[in-house]
Amino acid sequence: MCLSALVLVLLMQRRENKDKPAHQYDAFVSYNANDEGWVLGELLPKLEDEQGWRLCLHHRDFQPGKPIMENITDAIYGSRKTICVVSRDYLESEWCSREIQVASFRLFDEQKDVLILVFLEDIPMQQLSPYYRMRRLLKRQTYLSWSRADTHPNLFWEKLRQALKTQEHPMGEHILLTVEDGPPGERPDQ
User: Distance between CA 115 and CA 122 in Å, rounded?
Assistant: First the structure.
């Protein structure tokens, strides 16, 4: 069975399993191991320690011995939101690709605002062109840019808090998350 078929089977089983608690976490954080310093040094202290959110991190919260795809699926569906911490390393990671695939499936299946994109660095659109799913998400979702938050870090954290706070509105009812506009061609949404 190919991986895409396996992912779909896991997702369908997850949808049918109504016995599990709906949301154990406020957000699952999808990130590349090379970006772990930012996640543990910036994101985790701000969101968990200061703001009181309950985050799901793979190195800390995945169940040992359980197949990785089941852990990913359970983490995404067991969280109100998924935060994808996007970098060039993220885009090259097979596991990150699978995580955003499952999160995207949930987003389109439930038609609810359950995905938050945080770009750690500016990534030109031509570099995103091989990542069709990511480009499609950027056209429908708002996002946050850490690289542009250097002059307004408090605004970045406030926008992220607002994104986590929002209920699972039907798609289309979004708050504006972009911290500030960049020059054309440098923003992921252009």
Answer: 19
